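Open question from group meeting: does this chain pack into something compact, or does most of it stay loose? Before anyone orders reagents, we agreed to write out a predicted structure and look at it together. Recording both the input and the output here so the notebook holds the full record.
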Amino acid sequence: MLSRRLFLCAGLSCLGLPLIATAEQKLEFGDYLVHYIALPTSELTPATAKAYGVERSARRGIVVLNVQHRERPQIGLPATISGEVRNLLGQTKTRQFREIREQNAIYTIGEFSFSNLETLSFRFDIRPQGSTQQTELRFAQQFYINRE
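Structure tokens returned:
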């Protein structure tokens, strides 16, 4: 368990995500694990945002998903991931999702906009490549605009 958390922290730090924001959020289904996090893009370092083509802004967020096999949690798996981010009025807030590959890590990321104190609902359909197992991930999160 600890090694999986360390892998997630190491992987997210490769993306320049702060380790304080990596409280483990994961979904377990069948033979697979899905680690996920959503945070404001202003939390990314400028260099990381530039490297991945992510717009840093107090009003933009990023969601990162990583699929792993239970028997090989150190290696990210390719997966078909589709979904959406919606506000409480049902308005879709996402741009397009895209895959990032780095060494043994594979992430799917999506950017979205938000307002101060806005609660967003996230929904994803996830199917690891080559698997018949599929799952749905749902979570909600409130976002704040950091005015520093």
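Observations to bring back to the group:
The longest helix spans residues 2-14.
DSSP finds two helices and nine strands in the chain.
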